[in-house]
Design a protein that fits this description.
With about 500 residues, the chain is mainly α. Among the domains are: about 90-245, HUPs (Rossmann fold, 3-Layer(aba) Sandwich), CATH 3.40.50; about 260-345, Glutamyl-tRNA Synthetase, domain 2 (Orthogonal Bundle); about 395-494, Arc Repressor Mutant, subunit A. About 45% of the residues lie in helices and about 10% in strands. The chain is built from 21 helices and eleven strands. It has helices spanning about 20-35, 55-65, 90-105, 115-125, 140-150, 200-210, 225-235, 260-265, 275-280, 285-290, 305-310, 325-340, 345-355, 365-375, 380-385, 400, 410-425, 430-445, 450-460, 470-475, 480-494, and strands spanning about 10, 40-45, 105-110, 155-160, 165-170, 175-180, 190, 215, 240-245, 245-250, 325. The chain has a three-stranded antiparallel beta sheet with strand order 3-4-7. The longest helix is centred in the first third of the chain and has 17 residues, at about 20-35. It is elongated and about 105 Å long.
């Protein structure tokens, strides 16, 4: 299989905002195929669009990728033999290659004013035509163009697209894709301020960095003929093109976009990697989930660790069909990966979520409660809601809630007093001794578990739902459990 040769792939995001799932999936696939084949994965920052540049976005990008466990062999922060790895630091390189295209007759300087371009656009829109450039400067002689450039006239560089015949681009997933050249515009390659656009910069960089496979979103398919033509104009061998499937909204209707983020946030979900981290999802689960939105190993296997993905991933098994984002599956995978973590590791990952709520839990106690909650939480922050009472000195307790079902207040008070005495008499404070003592009392007083355990749970936690009660009591400790039962007695006495 061709992909088993070492590949050189790149992830080339623009630092214009938060890292979303589409970008994360592209980076993951790049990383997997590079590791699978013993090749190299390059991180390149495409920051030539200075108007859309967002300060701090590059740092968030790097942090998000590292949180996912995606590491690169070359990049702006680790260096490499083909740098610089920020396009803003490669401006002179692009101008050199733009001049080469002009010399070869594949590009030309365009001196048209914004007013002329606006007029052309309006005229074409009136005729219901694509608002393409009218080609006024395309037919200028090389001598006239050079003279106008020398005189200091402002210009952009446009690619001289063919106007007849077809251009064919070969995509690994879709095969040969044919485009009608009459629909091609003379795209701008370099703006009047000297900054190269993506169309030129990405191709020059891919060539100079020896990229073998370009894996990117299918939104680039419409401009793929232009990119193919630029490669051919230079006389360079094209990379293998791989355009990934589109993400659809959870409903399956319409393409997923950043605009849906606000609604998702209300439902406790997100399409942004940093927000998924903050919501308590594991990177292992996010990788597992995104990998399967566009790729599958077989029709049975769904649980994958990163080593599993590296071993089993292949470009041939990518699917170009649109994939609906299913957050229920993300929850499912998160539960699987939570259960797959060793208890001490899970405790370490949960700890920051308590800290974020102003709670610094005893680390030994936190690890001790993990077996009791491991299969009861969907996200890491669920543990804070369920276990907060174990690590705080004060809880909210309500006399009404302390009332035992089927009993009046005095009867409930008597049970509370009995439990305060029983707890004080216990020499050992373990799950086993707690269960034995509490069961013995239920048998003596003919109480159901719902009555007594419900009361104890409310008294020691102030919550209707907790981790398993005996395990919770053991972790809470005898002293604090007694203290809370005494508070319950005082409340019921009023």
């Amino acid at each position: 299989m061709p992909e088993l040769k070492p590949v050189r792939v790149r992830f080339a995001p623009s630092p214009t905002g938060h890292v979303h799932l589409g970008s994360a999936r592209t980076a993951l696939y790049d990383f997997l195929i590079a590791r699978k084949t013993g090749g190299q994965f390059i991180l390149r920052i495409e920051d030539t669009d200075r108007k859309r540049y967002v300060p701090g976005a590059e740092e968030e990008l790097i942090n998000s990728l590292r949180w996912l466990g995606i590491e690169w062999d070359e990049g702006p922060d680790v260096g490499g033999s083909y740098g610089p790895y920020r396009q803003s630091e490669r401006k002179g390189i692009y101008l050199k290659y733009a001049d080469e295209l002009i010399e070869k007759g594949h590009a030309y300087p365009c001196f048209c004013s914004p007013e002329h371009l606006a007029e052309v656009r309006q005229e074409k829109q009136k005729r219901k035509e694509a608002p393409h450039y009218d080609g006024m400067c395309r037919w200028l002689s090389p001598e006239e163009s050079r003279e106008r450039v020398r005189s200091g006239e402002k210009y952009v560089v446009r690619f001289k697209s063919p106007k007849e015949g077809t251009t064919v681009v070969h995509d690994l997933l879709r095969g040969a894709i044919e485009f009608d050249n009459k629909n091609m515009d003379d795209f701008i390659l370099v703006k009047s301020d000297g900054w190269a656009l993506y169309h030129l910069a990405a191709i020059v960089d891919d060539h100079l960095m020896k990229i073998s496979h370009v894996i990117r979103g299918s939104e680039w398919l419409p401009t793929s003929p232009l990119h193919g033509l630029i490669w051919r104009a230079f006389g360079w061998d094209e990379p293998v093109w791989v355009h990934l499937s589109v993400f659809l909204k959870p409903s399956g209707k319409g393409k997923m976009s950043k605009r849906e983020a606000a609604q998702l946030s209300k439902d406790g979900y997100s399409i942004f990697v940093k927000e998924l981290e903050d919501l308590g999802y594991l990177p292992e689960a996010v990788n597992n989930w995104t990998a399967l939105m566009g790729w599958s190993y077989d029709d049975r296997t769904e649980f994958f660790t990163m080593p599993d993905l590296i071993e089993k991933f292949s470009l041939e098994k990518l699917n170009p069909s649109p994939a609906a984002i299913n957050f229920s599956k993300l929850d499912h995978f998160n539960k699987l990966h939570i259960n797959n973590l060793p208890d001490n590791e899970l405790a370490k990952r949960i700890y920051p979520f308590f800290v974020k709520e102003g709670i610094a839990p005893d680390k030994n106690k936190l690890e001790a409660i993990i077996p009791a909650i491991k299969d009861r939480i969907t996200t890491l922050d669920d543990s804070v809601e369920k276990c907060r009472f174990l690590f705080t000195d004060e809880i909210e307790m309500d006399a009404e809630a302390l009332g035992i079902k089927g009993m009046d207040r005095k009867q409930s008070l008597r049970v509370a007093e009995d439990m305060a005495v029983r707890f004080g008499e216990m020499d050992e404070w373990t799950v086993q001794t707690l269960e034995e003592n509490i069961q013995r009392y239920m048998d003596e007083k003919d109480l159901s578990p719902g009555q007594l355990l419900g009361f104890i749970r409310e008294a020691v936690s102030g919550q209707r739902v907790t981790p398993p009660l005996y395990e919770s009591l053991e972790v809470l400790g005898k002293e604090k459990a007694q203290e809370r039962i005494r508070v319950a007695v005082a409340l019921l006495s009023k």
